[in-house]
Amino acid sequence: MKNQTTHIREIVSNLIKQPSEANSQLAGIVLDMFCTIYIEVANEFNLPSYIFFTSGACSLGLFYYLVSLRFEQNKDLKEYKNSDEELTVPCFSIPVPAKVLPAVFVEEGPMPDIFLGNFKRLAETKGVMVNTFYELESYAIESLLSDSSYPKVYPVGPILNLEDKESGGSDRQIAADEIKNWLDEQPENSVVFLCFGTMGSFEETQVKEIAIALERSGQRFLWSLRKPGGKGPMQFPIDYDNFEEVLPEGFLDRTKGIGKVIGWAPQVAVLSHSAVGGFVSHCGWNSTLESVWFGVPIATFPLYAEQQLNAFQLVKELGMAEAIRIDYVRDMNGEKPSEIVGAEEIEAAIRRLMAEE
Ligand SMILES: *[C@@H]1O[C@H](CO)[C@@H](O)[C@H](O)[C@H]1NC(C)=O
């Protein structure tokens, strides 16, 4: 990112020198939440910086809290790794277990300080636009607004991409049409949708437990099932050539008619369909907002980043989701095998999620 500074400086300089009709006068710069390093460029031109924060107000408040623990109180956050401690975080109305802190803040090595150092600089900006809305996180937003040491918070969301249309005739469009046709045949609110985000995949043992849970629950289901992309950090999932290589023997035959296993999922189209009544989700913030937007309740199965915190917020702080797990963590470096969540636990949560009331 540092290497891009010269390019950004040049672009800003040109915008100022050659104002167009569309931007007669540059009034400020909006930076992505991970790009606070470019506040320096804005400062050179005497422009105010604003941040676009892609997660919610609770996450923002927690990040501020961790920044102050680390840099004002000189606390070693590694102590919180696997700790049973609970933290009193101002933007939460209840204590926050250390186990739901994003792993990147408590791990060994230089990463915690790199991330926290980035978020420390939020304080130098004039405002933070958060992808949330007041009614969803009123407690956290009030808490952030009441502390004048933070830049002003603007709840500008939910910002969603509701038109993720695929181009006609493409493989994805064909898949999306097939999924829609299948959903059209299912009764209202009867289908549980399982989807785990851009980076979501499980090892074989975990896939089998999910399959057993689904079969025993007797629920109709639509399951986006993708394969780990390989060893090494941050590997994108890939599609299975054949789902039978990972599912329990006979699963596809036995669940024919009530369930459908797919690869990539057109998530917005699925969540907006009236047949879908529940969502087993990794609790990424986009998915969380989409679930709220379409009124499809979540059963939480967080994997990485701030997803454990989001799961905690949904289940405990807001009381609007069922927990499969709250502090489950998927090791994104693919080094140590993940803990396995058993079929009974998953089945019970799916039953609670899909219950009539
Ligand atoms: C979240 O949604 C926005 C569109 O609103 C998209 O640009 C972004 O890539 C999504 N983030 C993730 C992690 O998928």
TrEMBL record:
InterPro entries: UDP-glycosyltransf_plant, UDP_glucos_trans, UDP_glycos_trans_CS. Keywords: Glycosyltransferase, Membrane, Transferase, Transmembrane, Transmembrane helix. The chain crosses the membrane at residues 50-67. Pfam families: UDPGT. SUPFAM superfamilies: UDP-Glycosyltransferase/glycogen phosphorylase. GO terms for molecular function: UDP-glucosyltransferase activity. Belongs to the UDP-glycosyltransferase family. This is Uncharacterized protein.
